[in-house]
Write a structure and sequence with these properties.
Largest sheet: 7 strands, mixed
CATH architecture: Alpha-Beta Complex
Strand content: 35-45%
Structural class: alpha+beta
Order of helices and strands: HEEEEHEHEEHHEE
């Protein structure tokens, strides 16, 4: 199934994985300062807060192995336990990002993970991420840079959506 999904992918959709990761009652956010470009090395971007996510590569066995690879690359840790599969996150890229990536949409397979290690041991381990922070779920809604990320966190944890500023609305 997984390989067929990738084979069917046209140039218009990027397939990715992502996770909402908690430690106690806090949610993990990463500050990304570089973004992957499908044709070259990562490119510098304005810093943005988000939950960990990244593209599925052709040599990944399945979405979960892709996620665990991404977490090891970005956070230098394997101390995660999968607690649930979450609804997929699908969003359209801006024209600028679409031109850079060569696709217009991202389809992200999402998971809920618990971090079981020492939160002080987590550290950025690649060029894409420069900070890691555990914050309250409400602060995660406020801090997430992208509307689709704020809305996703709001739906999962509060069964609500958020406005453009991160304020929860009914």
């Amino acid at each position: 199934m997984f390989l067929r999904m990738l084979e069917k992918a046209s140039g218009s959709t990027r397939f990715a994985v992502g996770a909402l990761i908690y430690f106690g009652d806090r949610l993990l956010l990463v500050r990304k300062v570089r973004a992957m470009d499908m044709s070259t090395a990562p490119v510098a971007i304005e810093p943005e807060w988000d939950f960990p996510k990244g593209g599925i590569k052709s040599n990944d066995r399945d979405p979960l192995s892709a996620l665990l690879r991404e977490l090891k690359e970005e956070l230098a840790s394997e101390d995660f336990v999968v607690r649930a599969e979450l609804p997929d996150l699908i969003f359209d890229f801006s024209n600028e990002v679409a031109l850079r990536l060569g696709c217009h949409q991202q389809h992200t397979k999402m998971y809920l993970l618990e971090y079981c290690g020492d939160p002080n041991a987590l550290r950025p381990d690649d060029d894409e991420v420069d900070r890691i922070d555990f914050v309250s779920k409400l602060e995660a809604v406020r801090r997430a840079s992208h509307l689709e990320s704020r809305e996703y966190i709001s739906r999962v944890f509060f069964n609500q959506r958020s406005d453009h500023s991160g304020v929860l609305v009914s």
